[in-house]
Amino acid sequence: MTAEATPWPPAWPRALGLTSDMAPDRVSGMGSHEALPAGDYRAVPEDFVVEECLGFSPEGSGEHLWLWVEKRALTTHELARMLAQVCGVRERDIGYAGMKDRQAVTRQWLSVHLPGREAPEDIQAALDARLASDDARSVRLLDQARHPRKLKRGVHRGNRFLLRLSGDVVDDPGLESRWQRLIEGGVPNYFGPQRFGPEGRNLARARALLARGWRKRDDRQGMLLSAARSYLFNQLLAARIVDNSWATPLPGELVMLEGTASQFLVDDVDDELRERAARLDVHPSGVLWGSGRLASQDQAAERERAMIASEPELAAGLEAAEVRMGRRPLRLRLDAPRLTRDGHELRLAFGLPRGAFATAVLRELMTHPTL
């Protein structure tokens, strides 16, 4: 495993004194999980269940057929390709709001552009036929409806997770206290390891591509640009976890309101703002690097410029690729969190906003090679 693929420091285990201290100048994509118990969350796909929360319903008429599907051991890309074949359309005529994991059971909407055409008579049978020789993979069509527009990336509100944990973490006496700290204090909003590929190879590819000049034909889905921006964000978040400023705004901070895209600039951090941050009403944010003007100021901007100065090639490559600068909250609030035990079985249930990773929650609770 490469250094860039090793985990960034968790927040609450450090705050609880469970991991060794790390000086800010030593943050380089590496963290310390050694005191956390080992656990597994993907022994079988049913251990990791994800349901997309769209936030609205299809209207019932229109050129696009929307399908509510449950898939097992399939990527969203694979399912989209299968639906295109079954419905006799191009892959670009298939829409979906978000990418869902392969090693999981996931439910999400996909859309098929069928202007002036009826839907195939038995989509379920056609999908089953394509998976007949594969016991691991499956797709179930749960519902369908028409809608005037294609389902676009990022229009969903979030995702609901139901995870079953196994291993030493199940019997760990400190698990409940760490879980409660996540509920009360929030979750570091790290990009998950899947963003960087196995052993961080997407990031290595991104470095090489940006060094010679990004071209869309070399990165059609923007996956490598995303890996580079995500890495820089994680570096910033890790540094602010190390100095314990990740949950409290700094002077010049661009603060984001919980549950919305609204944000405002903080000149002075007063008691009222600290209290709002403590109750998870507002969150500090970090830059998603690209071209444009840095929105933060003062101490917050200094931290972000220092992060960029440590990775000048990545930053310059993103600017040259004309990726627009953005913001992302440094912290997440768990929606309707629940921990249940049944004998030796432990389950976690929680909701996260779109763009957030369940692995960011799990890495605060246990160790696992992919966390």
From TrEMBL:
Taxonomic source organism: Onishia taeanensis
Annotated SUPFAM superfamilies: Pseudouridine synthase
Residues of the active site are D101
Q: Which GO terms describe its biological process?
A: tRNA pseudouridine synthesis
From the Swiss-Prot or TrEMBL record, give the protein name: tRNA pseudouridine synthase D
User: Cellular component per GO?
Assistant: cytosol
Task: Work out whether the entry's keyword set contains Repeat.
Answer: no
Known function: Responsible for synthesis of pseudouridine from uracil-13 in transfer RNAs.
